[in-house]
Amino acid sequence: MTKPILELKNVSTIVNKGTASETTILKNLNLTINPGDFITIVGTNGAGKSTLFNVIGGTLIADQGQVLHNGQDITHQNEVTRTSFLSRVFQDPKLGTAPRMTVAENLLLAKRRGQSRRLVFRRLKQHFSEFKILAASMNNGLEDRLNTATGALSGGQRQALSFLMATLKRPDIILLDEHTAALDPHTSETLMQATNQRIQEDHLTALMITHHMEDAIKYGNRLLVLKAGRILADITGKEKAQLTPEKLTAYFE
Ligand SMILES: Nc1ncnc2c1ncn2[C@@H]1O[C@H](COP(=O)(O)OP(=O)(O)OP(=O)(O)O)[C@@H](O)[C@H]1O
Question: What residue stretches are annotated with the ABC transporter domain (predicted)?
């Protein structure tokens, strides 16, 4: 039997504890993620999607319940420690990359995460052909901009770079936090296809928050609907294949 890569057991998170505005955000949430799962997550604003990523990523520690990674309790492990097996791509193209460094330097930094910066940039040129192939897989011209400062890239190229950096060391889990939301429809579609291809080819395990119903249905093997801090639906297989944006939107009502 496949062993889960990550488990959330009866996880609850509470904000403004001990005050009149105390609120429980995630409510007794249970989730088992298996290796190779590509899970899309939808839900209305305020449903708890980002809070769920914060609990998985360690930005927020669960107030109740447990988070397990490969069976080991990581409930109280901090965000920095979790970067050894987990990475996250945000909606904002400015997050995740160093703007004054070139594309190649950013990629090398990601490849050698954990090493001192002085050592990281030795023999940068040796990696150029590898980075060119990697960047070309994003289908948006990133391979021709390896020597360009990240701050001068288009939004789509910058998000593609953030995604490549997040996947370079093959983390156990990748959290995609609306990573195409700030892009125009065509650029978003190109990045989504490249994202999907890399996840499939490298057998990565990923969770993706999206407000695009079509993307939530089209990509991934599982779809979660979050509502008021609970998982309202966990849809897989034939049921997912037969979903329509209309049927999915009906969950929100
Ligand atoms: N630190 C906090 N203090 C108070 N309320 C919070 C805090 N963090 C989150 N919330 C509330 O918890 C709820 C869930 O927030 P969360 O950001 O997880 O939702 P979301 O599903 O990601 O929404 P969106 O689609 O708008 O990004 C919201 O009502 C939000 O206002």
Answer: 6-253
